[in-house]
Amino acid sequence: MCGVFGIENNENAAVMAFAGLITLQHRGEESAGISANGDGTTYNTYRSMGLVAHIFKERILNILSGKVAIGHVRYSTHSESTIINAQPFVYNCIHGTIAVAHNGNITNFEQIKNRLAKSGSIFNHTSDTEIVAHLLAENTGKTFGQIMKKAVQCLQGAFSLVLIQGNKLIGARDSFGFRPLVLGKVGKSYVLSSETSAIYAVGGNFIRDVKPGEIIVIEKGKIIESLQLAQKEKEKLCIFEQVYFSRPDSILRDRSIRDARVEMGKYLARQMKHIKADIVVPVPDTGIFSAKGFSMHSGIVMQTGFIRNHYVGRSFIKPSQKMREITAKLKLFPIRDVINGKRIVLIDDSLVRGTTAQKIVITLRNAGAKEIHFALSSPAVISPCFYGIDTPNKSKLIAAVKSVEEIREFLNVDTLTFLDINNMKKACGNGDVNHFCSACFDGKYPSPIDRKKLLA
Amino acid sequence: MCGVFGIENNENAAVMAFAGLITLQHRGEESAGISANGDGTTYNTYRSMGLVAHIFKERILNILSGKVAIGHVRYSTHSESTIINAQPFVYNCIHGTIAVAHNGNITNFEQIKNRLAKSGSIFNHTSDTEIVAHLLAENTGKTFGQIMKKAVQCLQGAFSLVLIQGNKLIGARDSFGFRPLVLGKVGKSYVLSSETSAIYAVGGNFIRDVKPGEIIVIEKGKIIESLQLAQKEKEKLCIFEQVYFSRPDSILRDRSIRDARVEMGKYLARQMKHIKADIVVPVPDTGIFSAKGFSMHSGIVMQTGFIRNHYVGRSFIKPSQKMREITAKLKLFPIRDVINGKRIVLIDDSLVRGTTAQKIVITLRNAGAKEIHFALSSPAVISPCFYGIDTPNKSKLIAAVKSVEEIREFLNVDTLTFLDINNMKKACGNGDVNHFCSACFDGKYPSPIDRKKLLA
Amino acid sequence: MCGVFGIENNENAAVMAFAGLITLQHRGEESAGISANGDGTTYNTYRSMGLVAHIFKERILNILSGKVAIGHVRYSTHSESTIINAQPFVYNCIHGTIAVAHNGNITNFEQIKNRLAKSGSIFNHTSDTEIVAHLLAENTGKTFGQIMKKAVQCLQGAFSLVLIQGNKLIGARDSFGFRPLVLGKVGKSYVLSSETSAIYAVGGNFIRDVKPGEIIVIEKGKIIESLQLAQKEKEKLCIFEQVYFSRPDSILRDRSIRDARVEMGKYLARQMKHIKADIVVPVPDTGIFSAKGFSMHSGIVMQTGFIRNHYVGRSFIKPSQKMREITAKLKLFPIRDVINGKRIVLIDDSLVRGTTAQKIVITLRNAGAKEIHFALSSPAVISPCFYGIDTPNKSKLIAAVKSVEEIREFLNVDTLTFLDINNMKKACGNGDVNHFCSACFDGKYPSPIDRKKLLA
Amino acid sequence: MCGVFGIENNENAAVMAFAGLITLQHRGEESAGISANGDGTTYNTYRSMGLVAHIFKERILNILSGKVAIGHVRYSTHSESTIINAQPFVYNCIHGTIAVAHNGNITNFEQIKNRLAKSGSIFNHTSDTEIVAHLLAENTGKTFGQIMKKAVQCLQGAFSLVLIQGNKLIGARDSFGFRPLVLGKVGKSYVLSSETSAIYAVGGNFIRDVKPGEIIVIEKGKIIESLQLAQKEKEKLCIFEQVYFSRPDSILRDRSIRDARVEMGKYLARQMKHIKADIVVPVPDTGIFSAKGFSMHSGIVMQTGFIRNHYVGRSFIKPSQKMREITAKLKLFPIRDVINGKRIVLIDDSLVRGTTAQKIVITLRNAGAKEIHFALSSPAVISPCFYGIDTPNKSKLIAAVKSVEEIREFLNVDTLTFLDINNMKKACGNGDVNHFCSACFDGKYPSPIDRKKLLA
Fold first, then answer.
1. Which CATH number fits domain A253-455: 3.40.50.2020, 3.40.50.1820, 3.40.1360.10, 3.40.50.300?
2. How far apart are the CA of D122 and the nearest CA of chain A, in angstroms?
3. Does residue C151 have a pLDDT over 90?
4. Does the fold of domain B253-455 match that of domain B3-235?
5. What DSSP string describes D398-441?
């Protein structure tokens, strides 16, 4: 769960990266960083824990001079969530100075790290991103694109990378294309971004996806190299991007996230046509478009049933259990006269642990909900993700340990409906339903996974 | 534009005040403060610039011990927005130590201040709230309620006050009841709040409004005094509370804000029945319920046309013009495929300067909007507020200097519709349309106003 | 224990005040503040907890524009040492805006406060300085000097005040002249300061003491008024200034602090001529000049026996008991090969509680000191100060509750010698020994003291 | 210019390191860090810009749990003085996790870095310390001591290293022993430190110097290995440690720094016996003991001529030129009545650029000094240091570009005397004068130096 952004050939590269990162902030609220380079040698880098808008005050942006910049927002999946792991990382090596930012999760990280350690490498971070720098440093080639290709060839798992080397902005995506990476242009500057929304945010236009397995090297407003990783594999874009992770105004594989979600809602309505209800209520903000689709198809009116207090941020308060409980209640607040006495179709995007949903149901019951028909715009999450989404291990996935009926009882809802996996794929796929990774919903991992981790 | 909150007879008074203030945060994002007292003499007070959740970390709340607490959030209407004016204020005087927090604007402040200065008073703040403390200090009486009554009798304008004196929690509201103040109860503790939402936020129940002109004194879970200011005037609740200021889940004079806004939207739809449009798009977040009402009455489907980026807060970034422009664009982002090619009814709550609306229209035009029919769920703002809402002086109110047709041209919209003032009052009033102050819309000020200020 | 500084008619008034306050920092390390005014109405003020050099970064100084500035450093004598009491205070009143900074302690503070409270005054601070503003506000006069005279006439105890009113810089000193206040000039600007050292620090020249009971009003480089408080009393300058408080490069009543201390040491040597010792070791830094004097007269060589670690500041670390003990040991470190096997004359300035001296003796014993002859360059402190020095109440003054022999045993020293009170006065007085307040050494208070406080 | 400290087998390892670092703070005021390890795998590390006492608040120390800890204070010799280069560094490699802190300067750093880069290494820092980690990682051996020996064998220049590996505390010193490193013991814990003073500061006893070329490995209170680097070279301890750098209460090669400085002063007095003067005035704080020695031998009385304001720290204020000038003047303040009319022997430790000395002379002249005989307790600095002392390159060394007479004129002193190099060595050496590196004074570098750098 990270976001990356890069821009080149731009006088305001760091400010553009700042705007891009604010737009990608939902992809990681824990730390953020920007590295900029202009003259090919001096890299100006600033990383900190916290939100983009808090970190990058104007005086900071002013010192991040340089015409090429990359940025990163991060939500740690590990406990070691400290400043030392905030990206971009900047390294010196035989190829000069290189800055790198990474979205994804490299599944053969340990093996490569062990191999590198045996040959005398040292590791400054606990992050898997550092081995990308090691692999770059130990490979050679005629062009940086070729070096890059050799370096990432051995990586398994998910990676969408942006790098700076000298005046070059480089993008790379694993062969499955697990994590998104898109190319845009603003004026004479190319832009790389995790989502199209950030390209538009800086006033640019979306050009195309960086292809699965593509390595793209840009310099001074020109794409100077585009290489393809040797083994061409079937694209497997993470379907959780559509379900939850991406902004609704982003576009993935020519399909708007918003449209995909509206259609998920319509499919849900079809699955639930026997349900009698008075209103459809989305859990804000991710349930809104599915609820809209549900309402459109079912004819049941959609109502705003909750006020979300945006002043209660997770990054603002990291307190004791008592404080956490107090502030959690303040975040989502029911509108009593909407809820009271109603039969409600409650729509959320996905069910992972079930604990948040349980609290929302209690809130609705206390506000007088007569019936609650809980609908998820995705199937039950039954398997952990190894490609960069922060899902817990199996024992904590409620749908991995409980039956649907048991979950319904646990949540205390009248009915519980998961979106059928084929419906989900049809909604997201624009016809083609095979290019998605849906391992978290069906356990079918496109690439080899360490069985020990799977069973952990 | 402030919010006040008070609670008494409660072991966790400061934490409850914190929860209340987070719920009232929309009423003032500039500074916040809490003062707590338990033993009748030592007041523990903390005030700071910034957001409630940023200021009141757990270690701060832990030192704010005491069973009575009041809190305040503030948006300054003056340039002197510094920590010195953050409330609550705490004073020693002949009546012991008193903490006071104020929502409103006292219109005869200068006269009283001059009178006090001539008799030898000194002033530590530039705020009008300080004179309340002076007036309390120079009056005597058998009970604190009586002292309070004498003190505030001479005040003109708007005030909703909460105070602590010893173990007592005191509330007071001007005779017109310009600004709201409500009474609730949670367990054995009475609560005073600017809005009902904050009472529910702490798990309490709404009891009743503090009446216009009422002074209420509470001690150890009992209402020990309720006095009425001598001259009983017609209630004149600020109708801008319903239009924009209050949270939609709050209730004012037995009328839910949400219902009032939905009905405003219905009235708007009636006014605009001749308009042909494809979709209704609210400006988030205040236009949502009016848009819902418009859609319900007109049958035109409501769509989410904007993504609001909640990471872009006004309190986060206070930068140069350049930075302000960059971040302003990031705040509200159009969803292209919703907007493109559509005839749009755009709904916002009110039109003050017109500059923000102008930018939103440009955004919609750039996203491909075919027609824009701009509807405001309030009449044109033509006169400044002297009772605590931060409206600019007349020369900056677009509707005070331009005709509707001129505004329509300025905004570059196809049609422009303001909600009829009577429709607004009917929507807000539950039948009774005379108890509102609507001076900003019609220039009829319930209390005397300095003409020089009016013409400034 | 405070320091005050003022300068007028100067383009860099705040920077000059900053330089002055750094030079006076030893007089109060807890909080510091500067208030500047140029145009007669707008006062730019900044106060904070901490050290002058930490607080007044250049960006802060830059906003403190104005040609008249006063500054204050403070060491609280009360537990209420919070930012609210940091000076200068700035008030509005009938005379316009006034900034005030105060060194001293007003002994009839409670009586005056009660009188003011009864007549309806409110109090924002717990400090006695606030009543000066109240008294100014309730008095009138043809000139500000006359108002000032009326205001301070009723004050008992110690005060050295600097104020700004409009373009005027005002200084005032109580009739006894308990606390110092000197007048200097740099270029066309007059300077007021607690010590001459701060006048020299800003490149100025010392002119004269502000006389006991004098009120001096300066405007645009001219002394426009000099008034004398009605009752002319015998000057009683606090002799603790010479003993401990003032910088050695300051001059008080035409007598250099350094010379006074050297002579104290000579008198001590006379008193201890029977003592056989190898070396004289001062407790740094205040014992150094007395030790020098002792060595000069006795012929016993003076040695640096301790390294003082200036990185261990009291304001840096405010921790648990454990941390305090660790860092206390790091502050003063014995040089073993100086101490080991030696008969030592240990010289410190004064003995208050005896706890620090006890630790120093242990340190010396551990470093191998053979004999320790402890000499204090002042008599035993037997009575608390009510004029602004932070001495504890009687029960904690070791010499108030123990005999000299008991103290010697408590400290575990071979001999213990206090400087004879007459010798101290002779050393400080340049012949005239009657113009000192030595109440802390002899209990003779020049002005009436509340007996309850004395016996507390 | 750095200081290192290590302790093992201690429940309060981080607190002890904190106390040690405060005592070594004079060796580097720019950044500080502590890394602690207890269980052999998790290293708790905190590094920051600033002073030890500012950085390591109690809450920080509490999270630095572990029974082995090393610490580092640093004064950067490069412009890249940022947090990224604050030590200790912590790395993972084939030998597990290793923390390393370094005092010194590795002269063949570039060659080794180039060799490593060619073989695929990446570099996270600009510091030469990082290559120590690389060399450790690429070597193997039966014990960590053997690995360490292989790793540092190829290093040229100066290094005194402390490391943690698992439960082991390791110390290493280059074959010349340029920089000091001493071994002590407190209870059951061994201590390594740049200076003996820090051993005493934590309550320990000095045992012995770590020998030049020695690698010492300590685990659980036992020295488990002591290896000697192959080529045994003549010890060449940096004589600048005695002249200026070390604390006077430290002991180097069985010689107290204080005694060495006193004797330097005596030798100076012999060299200057023809000079007639009234007083000897040291530049505080480093000139004090030499001045004492001068006074003892010459019979000319030593006087404290300056007040040093310890509140003016270089780390506190990093401002514009104007602010720097203002605060520079505040740091050292002349005592007029000591200076005025006197013939003064002014004693400082060394002369590098001459700019500070020039200002001090102006100060003394302004304070009325009649004659100034300037004496340095070291020879003229004519060559840069490549072993870790921050001297500028030749063109900025005043004695490299001017004759003694030219310097005397530049400084505007009556006479100028440098301590004879042999006298300096005799004073420092306890008889043996050959074990010192005095390259900065005589240009004789014990190890090969890059001629380009020498001529830079």
1. 3.40.50.2020
2. 5
3. yes
4. no
5. HHHHS-HHHHHHHHT-SEEEEPPHHHHHHHHHTT--SSEE-HHH
Whether B255 has its CB under 8 Å from any CB of chain A: the answer is no
Taking CA–CA distances from C43, the nearest residue in chain B reads B80
Cβ contact, residue pair A91, D117, below 8 Å: no
Length of chain D: 456
Q: What are phi and psi of A405, to 5 degrees?
A: -65, -40
This prediction has a pTM of 0.87
Q: Nearest-CA distance from C216 to chain D in Å? A: 28
Asked whether C394 and C454 are in contact (CB, 8 A), the reply is yes
Q: Does C122 touch chain B if contact means CB atoms closer than 8 Å?
A: yes
User: What would the two tokens of residue A431 be?
Assistant: 């016809």
Name the residue in chain C with its Cα closest to that of B134.
C122
Burial of C426 (0-12, 13-18, 19+ CB in 10 A): middle
| C and A in touch (3+ CB pairs within 8 angstroms) | no
Min Cα separation B134/chain C (Å) = 6
- Does the beta-carbon distance from C22 to D309 stay under 8 Å? yes
What digits encode the pLDDT tens for the residues A198-208?
999 999 999 99
- Annotated active-site positions of C, please? 2
User: Residue D183: pLDDT above 90?
Assistant: yes
Q: Would you list the domain boundaries of chain B?
A: 3-235, 253-455
- What fold is seen in the domain D3-235? Glutamine Phosphoribosylpyrophosphate, subunit 1, domain 1 (3.60.20)
Closest CA to A272 of A431, A438, A432, A423: A423
Catalytic residue status for A2: yes
CB contact under 8 A, B18 and A289: no
Q: Going along B143-188, which residue ranges are E strands?
A: 157-165, 168-173, 182-186
Q: Indicate yes or no: CB of A249 within 8 angstroms of CB of B334.
A: yes
User: Which is nearest to A99 in space by CA: A64, A57, A75?
Assistant: A64
Tell me, what amino acid is at B322?
Answer: K
Inter-chain CB proximity A92 and D134 less than 8 Å: no
Whose CA is closest to D168, among D331, D363, D22, D7? D7
Least Cα separation, residue B175 to chain C (angstroms): 25
CA distance B419 to B399: 14
Sign of the dihedral defined by the CA atoms of residues C219, C223, C225, C231, in that order? positive
Which DSSP symbol is given to C283? P
Closest by CA position to C173, among listed C181, C165, C183, C163? C181
Structure-token pair, residue A80: 């070691």
Residue in D25, D259, D327 nearest the CB of C311: D25
Show which subunits contact A, needing at least 3 CB pairs below 8 angstroms: B, D
Beta strands in C21-153 (DSSP E): 31-37, 43-49, 68-74, 89-93, 96-106
- pLDDT, residue A60, reads 87
- The size of the A-D interface in CB pairs under 8 A is 63
- Pairwise CA distance, residues C340 & D249, whole Å: 13
Q: Do A335 and B258 make contact, defined as CB atoms within 8 angstroms?
A: yes
CA dist list (Å): C244 to B353, B395, C28: 64, 64, 13
- Per-residue pLDDT of B235-265, as tens digits, reads 999 999 999 999 999 999 889 999 999 999 9
Comparing alpha-carbon positions, the chain C residue that sits nearest to B118 is: C94
Q: How many CB pairs under 8 A join B and C?
A: 63
Q: Contact C137/B117, CB-based, under 8 Å?
A: yes
Element (H or E) spanning A380, and its range? none
Q: Which amino acid is at C183?
A: L
d(CA B447, CA D121): 78
pLDDT in tens, A263-318: 999 999 999 999 999 999 999 888 999 999 999 999 999 999 998 888 776 433 34
CB B6 within 8 A of CB B57: no
